[in-house]
Write a structure and sequence with these properties.
The chain is α/β, with parallel strands linked by helices and 424 residues long. 48% of the residues lie in helices and 13% in strands. Strands 2-1-3-12-6-13 form a six-stranded mixed β-sheet, with helices on both faces. The relative contact order is 0.16.
């Protein structure tokens, strides 16, 4: 009975979201005559929520005949609600999206509006966006989204501990393993991982695939209905992940990513793989820390210098009754003033050129942004880049691999089977 009550409650909740979205998608609000824009995004908590609300209020002040109605949900909840809201007759005017397969599906299904003409018309605005961060929102030469912020993944290390033990920042895989060995011999957990949600190991997989698999193969496997995942480099990448497991904290699958980051901040580990947007969350660390990229791997046939990561941003619904107004809001959201405010108040690195600077961000954040803007290749997170039906066995397989319950070969066999089903 409780299970069915929960299901019924979920249905009512989704219906209320649809109803709310439907009422707000009309040309005006009958109570005040203002045009309403519905804005659907995935940051319901502060400091992000406060940031968006302040930008909305400023936009409404400059456009007194407009009111913005928010719909918010976080991560997995967002994805579930997006399926319902964006498939309704009156979807939100503006909606958040990840890039990769997640965003490309909105393009293929005709959910997202082609924004190319807006990019061409307002060069003063569009030219200030970092080009490499716009391209993931493109398809067949057209632009379907506006990047808000960008992110990359780096290894963060306890610099004080490294100095004490005489360790140098590793640039090769062999050096990395040797550093982890020394850390373990000296009673420190060498490598922290919280993989309760499998995207965490998925980021390791992304970086290791980038090093071990030719870029052209990855591009084909990550394309729509082009996935095979038969290259031997994929197995080799999982073998490298398996090689790291003895240096990780006990049972990483039972620990959340947030908990593992807190352990690092508390000085209970030597190295952790974090996103650059998490830099602002390390302010309570009582030690000096530094960063380094995924080391090069001897014999790897992939890109040995590239980064992993991706921008995140917004699309406009093709069904929106107010596309011009929706784009006007996105242009306002991504001007330099709000870009500077974004990094300063939330720690999210704006994709507006020059917004992340010494006046708005820490030196570490500026350095990370320099890596991003200077990167020739930036590989999108695997959990976003490929179809969910393919990533599910990949992510769960990585969990089983770290738990000693399967092999790299078995994981990739399940991924290949999933790819075959998706391609049918």
């Amino acid at each position: 009975m409780k299970r069915w009550l929960a299901v019924f409650a979920s249905i009512l909740l989704l219906m209320s979201f649809i109803a709310g979205c439907s009422s707000s998608s009309s040309s005006s609000d009958s109570s005040n005559g203002k045009t309403t824009l519905t804005f659907f995004y995935r940051w319901p908590d502060d400091p992000y929520h406060s940031y968006f609300q302040s930008v909305e209020k400023e936009f409404e002040k400059e456009n007194p005949n407009v009111q913005i109605k928010e719909i918010t949900a976080i991560n997995d909840d967002y994805k579930q609600k997006a399926n319902v809201l964006l498939g309704s007759q009156n979807p939100p005017d503006l909606f958040f999206t990840w890039v990769g397969e997640y965003g490309q599906k909105f393009i293929r299904d005709g959910v997202a509006l082609d924004l190319s003409s807006y990019f061409q018309k307002d060069k003063a605005w569009s030219s200030q966006l970092i080009p490499s961060q716009v391209s993931p929102f493109e398809s067949n030469g057209k632009v379907y989204g506006v990047p808000l912020h960008t992110d990359t993944k780096l290894f963060f290390y306890n610099k004080d501990l490294f100095d004490k033990l005489g360790l140098k920042v590793p640039t090769t895989w062999t050096e990395f393993i040797n550093d982890l060995k020394v850390l373990k011999q000296n009673g420190t957990t060498p490598l922290l991982l919280g993989n309760k949600d499998p995207w965490a190991a998925g980021h390791y997989i992304t970086a290791l695939n980038q090093r071990m698999v030719p870029a052209s193969v990855i591009q084909q496997d990550f394309s729509y209905k082009g996935a095979k995942f038969t290259d031997p480099g994929y197995v080799q990448a999982l073998e490298k992940l398996q090689e790291l497991e003895p240096y990780m904290n006990t049972n990483p699958n039972a620990l959340t990513h947030e908990a593992s980051r807190n352990e690092f901040v508390a000085g209970k580990g030597g190295v952790i793989f974090l996103e650059s947007l998490e830099i602002s969350l390390l302010k309570d660390a009582k030690f000096h820390w530094g960063t380094f990229k995924m080391p090069t791997i001897d014999g790897g046939k992939g890109d040995q210098t590239g980064l992993i990561g991706a921008p995140e941003g917004f699309m406009v619904s093709k069904k929106s009754a107010h596309p011009d107004l929706a784009v006007k809001f996105l242009e306002f959201l991504t001007n330099k003033v709000n870009g500077e405010k974004l990094i300063k108040e939330t720690g999210l690195a704006s994709t507006v050129q020059g917004a992340v600077n010494s006046q708005t961000a820490s030196k570490q954040e500026v350095d990370a942004m320099s890596l991003i803007t200077g990167a020739k290749n930036m590989m999108v997170w695997t959990d976003s880049a490929i179809d969910t039906q393919i990533f599910n066995p990949y992510g769960s397989g990585a969990q089983a691999l770290l738990g000693g319950q399967t092999t790299p070969q078995a994981v990739m066999k399940s991924v290949q089977q999933a790819a075959q089903q998706v391609n049918q």
